[in-house]
Specification:
Elements (H helix, E strand, L loop, with lengths): L9 H13 L8 H5 L1 H20 L9 H13 L4 H7 L2
Zinc ion binds next to helix 1 and helix 3.
């Protein structure tokens, strides 16, 4: 039986896996990985994919004026219809 409260099943582990990886935790040190060959292989695959993705899509900082461009684009699209509404909120 797999009712040991200290253990989780593959579905539970795999549901937590993205969080583990995303939080920077060492997923390969998880007790389930130690005892489950299936999930160990899955984790290896995920890490290979993640590594490939990092090389294909390196994280770049958005240019500092990006938000300003977005903001002005929103304002232009809006046509100023929210101006009177905003004024009423601030008494
Ligand atoms: Zn498993």
């Amino acid at each position: 039986m797999t009712n040991d409260p200290g253990k989780i099943n593959c579905a539970d582990f795999q549901a937590k896996l993205p969080d583990l990886i995303g939080s920077g935790a060492n997923a390969s040190a998880h007790p389930h990985i130690q005892s489950c060959e299936l999930c160990r292989a899955l984790l290896a695959d995920l890490e290979t994919i993640a590594e490939a993705a990092r090389q294909l899509f390196p994280v770049v900082d958005p240019p500092e004026d990006l938000w300003a461009h977005i903001e002005s684009a929103i304002k232009n699209e809006d046509g100023g219809s929210n101006v009177s509404h905003a004024a009423s909120i601030t008494h």
